[in-house]
TrEMBL record:
<dbReference type="InterPro" id="IPR029041">
    <property type="entry name" value="FAD-linked_oxidoreductase-like"/>
</dbReference>
<feature type="binding site">
    <location>
        <position position="158"/>
    </location>
    <ligand>
        <name>FAD</name>
    </ligand>
</feature>
<protein>
    <recommendedName>
        <fullName>proline dehydrogenase</fullName>
        <ecNumber>1.5.5.2</ecNumber>
    </recommendedName>
</protein>
<keyword id="KW-0560">Oxidoreductase</keyword>
<feature type="binding site">
    <location>
        <begin position="221"/>
        <end position="222"/>
    </location>
    <ligand>
        <name>FAD</name>
    </ligand>
</feature>
<dbReference type="GO" id="GO:0000166">
    <property type="term" value="F:nucleotide binding"/>
</dbReference>
<dbReference type="Pfam" id="PF01619">
    <property type="entry name" value="Pro_dh"/>
</dbReference>
<feature type="domain" description="Proline dehydrogenase">
    <location>
        <begin position="32"/>
        <end position="294"/>
    </location>
</feature>
<comment type="pathway">
    <text>Amino-acid degradation; L-proline degradation into L-glutamate; L-glutamate from L-proline: step 1/2.</text>
</comment>
<dbReference type="InterPro" id="IPR002872">
    <property type="entry name" value="Proline_DH_dom"/>
</dbReference>
<keyword id="KW-0547">Nucleotide-binding</keyword>
<feature type="binding site">
    <location>
        <position position="92"/>
    </location>
    <ligand>
        <name>substrate</name>
    </ligand>
</feature>
<feature type="binding site">
    <location>
        <position position="283"/>
    </location>
    <ligand>
        <name>substrate</name>
    </ligand>
</feature>
<feature type="binding site">
    <location>
        <begin position="182"/>
        <end position="184"/>
    </location>
    <ligand>
        <name>FAD</name>
    </ligand>
</feature>
<dbReference type="InterPro" id="IPR008219">
    <property type="entry name" value="PRODH_bac_arc"/>
</dbReference>
<dbReference type="InterPro" id="IPR015659">
    <property type="entry name" value="Proline_oxidase"/>
</dbReference>
<keyword id="KW-0285">Flavoprotein</keyword>
Length: 302
């Protein structure tokens, strides 16, 4: 299927629109161009649910090199080098070994520590992605532990989870940097809101918590309603552009990304790359039919 897709020009173009390439060599110029346009970046080396220790080790090795390459790219781009790092990596603990049986969470935590230690050396940030709900407790615990040494480490929070508002309060109280997103996995009603209106309402409740109390909230949404609410709450809470940031996926709402930057707001683009793009795109489509409309909409939005 993957080979077939890359042979069809239209679908290959779709892949290229959302994925920055298969290798670091392809990724780096894309990241540099975004930095030159005034945007910050967060780069995801694609891969998840690793069932092989060797693969987890290879992912760590790739991330170590990626951190170096992004730091170098950042240095070559002129512009203000503020306290807020312009380059970041996003990672999934399941790619670092979390699903390797009983020892998985400990292996992933050790790998996370290794990457944070490298990142701090290079003035690069790290955010841990949120995966399916069966991993949430382990992920939050790994981030809590790592933050004792790396307090800038961030985690993504999915507002479709019924526990999201409670998590937002606890994480904000602990001073955690939080990426607020709606959530992209197909989850059961026992743990997740199923109706769009409920997910949006949860997003707005969590957003209010973060904008009132949290350190550096990150609004990861393409939704005009969420962006408008974030701007209103920022004004209400006297938050300046450097006190929070917007985040969007690579290839989605590019014009809106540029508009926010031109108005002085911080905006970070989440850029996936790697050979595992097929899984990234297909899983998003297969797990949640609404994601098909999400990608199709992006093709018509200029
Ligand atoms: P949503 O899909 O709810 O659509 C609302 C409105 O936004 C639309 O009506 C339209 O106006 C606009 N819109 C949305 N998509 C558009 C498009 N493609 N083109 C034009 N307009 C569009 N998920 C997860 O489970 N774990 C994670 O770790 C992350 N990480 C993450 C990082 C970042 C930086 C982002 C932006 C997103 C994630 N996600 C994620 C994905 C997230 O949970 C969610 O699935 C998508 O962002 C879609 O939700 P939205 O809030 O963007 O809009």
């Amino acid at each position: 299927m993957k080979r077939a897709i890359t042979r069809v020009p239209v679908t290959a173009a779709v892949v290229r629109r959302f994925v920055a390439g298969e290798t670091r060599a392809e990724l780096v110029p894309v990241a540099r161009a975004l930095l030159e346009s005034g945007r910050a970046v967060s780069v995801d080396f694609l891969g998840e649910y690793t069932t092989d220790r060797g693969q987890a080790d290879a992912a760590v090795a790739e991330y170590l090199s990626l951190i170096d390459d992004l730091a170098e790219a950042d240095h070559t781009v002129p512009g203000a080098h503020s306290d807020i790092p312009r380059v970041e990596v996003s990672l999934k603990l399941s790619a670092l070994g979390q699903s390797l049986g009983q020892d998985g969470p400990a292996i992933a935590a050790e790998n996370l520590h290794k990457l944070c230690a490298k990142a701090v050396e290079r003035h690069v940030w790290v955010t841990v992605d949120a995966e399916d709900h069966s991993t949430t407790a382990d992920t939050l615990e790994a981030v809590r532990q790592a933050r004792a040494e790396f307090p800038w480490l961030a985690v993504a929070l999915q507002t479709y989870l019924r526990q999201a508002e409670g998590n937002a309060r606890d994480l904000a109280a602990a001073g955690t940097r939080i990426r607020l997103c709606k959530g992209a996995y197909q989850e059961p009603g026992t743990v997740a809101y199923q109706r769009r209106a409920e997910v949006d309402a949860s997003y707005l409740r969590c957003l209010a918590v973060l904008m009132h109390t949290a350190w550096y909230p990150m609004i990861a949404s393409h939704d005009p309603a969420m962006i408008a609410a974030a701007l209103a709450l920022a004004a209400e809470n006297n938050r300046k552009p450097g006190d929070f940031e917007f985040q969007m996926l690579y290839g989605i709402r590019d014009a809106e990304q540029r508009r926010l930057v031109s108005e002085g707001h911080a905006l970070r683009v989440y850029i996936p790359y790697g050979t595992q793009w097929y899984g990234y795109l297909m899983r998003r489509l297969a797990e949640r039919p609404a994601n098909l409309a999400f990608f199709l909409r992006a093709l018509t939005d200029r």
